[in-house]
Amino acid sequence: MNFRPITIADKNIITEYTYESDFKNCDFAFSNMCSWRFLYESEFAAEDGFLFIRFNVPDKKHNHKAYMFPVGKGNLAHAINKIEKDAATLNLPLLILGITDESKIILEKNFPNEFTYMTDRNYFDYIYLREDLQFLKGKKFQAKRNHINKFNKLYQYSYIPLTQEIAPQCMELEQIWLNLNVSEQYREALANERRSLCFALKNFTQLELHGGAIVVDNKIIAFSCGSKINRNTFGVHVEKADITYEGIFSVINREFVSHLPQEYIYINREEDLGIAGLRKAKLSYNPVMLLAKNGAMKRKSPALN
Asked: Would you list the DSSP string of 156-176?
């Protein structure tokens, strides 16, 4: 297979597959593929009607090669066999990550009892209805409305589009947030996130990111940005705020979603990584779906020719 490193120049090729797919995984957002390539060394190949993604899964000792579920139309069994053969050339068993429960059913139909599955709740994507986050209707969102009402009584604010011109101010805010939240346990992960964000903001236009910021007294106190995942799903990749402004996260969340194009029905706010506070916050917005992303290891390999 002809895998090559993912670059911004490959956007049209890759999104030709992902935008028309049913996959809502945050991993299929092109901006994520590009901005995190420094860590995962992501590569792609487009062959036989499918998009194939290959990447490293880093751990403390060494990297493991893994694949995303093929995206496209055609003979899925043939597509899976192709990446199994590719893994074999690296002397590795086939490992596919990011498999949704629906994809798992399809995989089992084509390869019954040939895969061992692994599921980690920490990597489930949180999927919300856009209208829920925008309008915050009903008793289940009363606390969020209260936070916003309190913020409105204390501050006069404006919402402005995030552009490359204000990106430096956003990075300053991110550094403030980082200083307040960094701990030894998450230091490396947060440093990687900052590097990813820096790349995304420097290439904001080319990646077709959409973002916005909250301004109080001529100062950016919150910002959020993300990108299209597929035809009806938008991914929120970053959301940072100065927590000394009570209610600010509720405000930036609602304002950002309210300014998105109307084509999006679903909002993917990505994983919680097992961080207790982050999990509590994401659950408090009442996701319509927790998108399970399974790993699958091939355990019965036919002879590879």
From this structure: --EEEE--TTTHHHHHHHHHH
